[in-house]
Amino acid sequence: MKNFTNSQNIRKIAWVLLIIGWLNRGLLWLFNFDVIALIFGYGFFARVIYTLVGLATVYVLLYPASKTHTPLRK
User: Fold this and answer.
1) Residues 16-63: pLDDT tens digits?
2) How many beta carbons lie within 10 A of that of residue 54, not counting itself?
3) Cβ(58)–Cβ(16) below 8 Å
4) CA angle 35, 33, 36 (to 5 degrees)
């Protein structure tokens, strides 16, 4: 079993939330069908899921996958 660091786990969770948000938004735009509202209703829990998807989007955009830079010169 691989030993993943905490940031790798957070990145995977963020990407899963991001994909769920994209699929939900696509279904909403194409068919006017909101899966999150269907599962959680239009109350507090749906807002929590939407907030988590938004935070995951910001996390993925602000923290790129690799922060290693190769030097231009040796």
Assistant:
1) 999 999 999 999 999 999 999 999 999 999 999 999 999 999 999 988
2) 13
3) no
4) 20
Domain boundaries, the chain: 11-62
Identify which has the larger pLDDT, 73 or 31. Answer: 31
Amino acid found at 69 = H
DSSP string across the chain: -----HHHHHHHHHHHHHHHHHHHHHHHHHH---HHHHHHTTSHHHHHHHHHHHHHHHHHHHS-S------S--
Burial class (CB in 10 A: 0-12, 13-18, 19+), 15: middle
